[in-house]
């Protein structure tokens, strides 16, 4: 179902409990959801997440992105060491391909639920770095506007 192009295969990695497609959509096995997707989330919350999961369309897996933003913009990636949906080596490979600034934390695929402050801190770090980069670029442009011969 998921090809190497989507999530690289890694020997010994857990296999996500993706059920056979139903009407062109994929779901995770409800009984295995918590252990695979939300192992560090409160049991009641994980159960609710399993019951309310939104199916993924098979067509989304075949979509082609010809110009991903990470090729032109700074990227950040939270490497989640206990993720049983995307193995750490696959996460690392994707982050490296994107040239992402990384932070590594123990947690499940649902780390945004179990550790929202850690996720927010990474987003804040990315926003601050982007703002510093923006101000640096704007400063350079303003300097060149005032001193046009400085570019030569």
Describe this structure in words.
With 152 residues, the chain is mostly helical. It has two domains: 14-63, no CATH class; 72-152, no CATH class. It contains six helices and four strands. The strands form two sheets. Strands 1-2 form a two-stranded antiparallel ribbon. It has a two-stranded parallel ribbon with strand order 3-4. Helix 4 (88-97) links the parallel strand 3 and strand 4.
What summary fits the major beta sheet? 2 strands, antiparallel
Number of domains: 2
Got a strand count? Answer: 4
Shape: globular
Helix-strand pattern:
EHHEHEHEHH
Q: Averaged pLDDT, please?
A: 86
Number of discrete helical segments: 6
Give the low-pLDDT segments.
1-5
Write the layout of secondary structure elements.
Layout: E1 25-26, H1 30-37, H2 43-51, E2 56-57, H3 58-61, E3 76-80, H4 88-97, E4 101-105, H5 111-114, H6 116-146
Parallel strand pairs: 3-4
Antiparallel strand pairs: 1-2
Helix pairs in contact: 1-2
């Amino acid at each position: 179902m998921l090809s190497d192009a989507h999530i690289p295969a890694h020997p010994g990695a857990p296999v996500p409990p993706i059920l056979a497609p139903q009407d062109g959509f994929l779901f995770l096995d409800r009984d295995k959801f918590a252990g695979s997707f939300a192992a560090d989330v409160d049991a009641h919350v994980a159960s609710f997440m399993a019951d309310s999961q939104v199916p993924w369309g098979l067509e989304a897996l075949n979509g082609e992105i010809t110009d991903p933003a990470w090729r032109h913009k700074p990227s950040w990636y939270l490497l989640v060491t206990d993720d049983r949906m995307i193995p750490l080596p696959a996460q690392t490979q994707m982050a490296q391909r994107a040239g992402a600034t990384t932070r590594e934390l123990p947690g499940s695929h649902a780390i945004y639920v179990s550790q929202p402050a850690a996720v927010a801190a990474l987003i804040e770090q990315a926003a601050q770095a982007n703002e510093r980069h923006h101000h640096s670029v704007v400063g350079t442009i303003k300097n060149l506007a005032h001193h046009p011969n400085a570019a030569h």
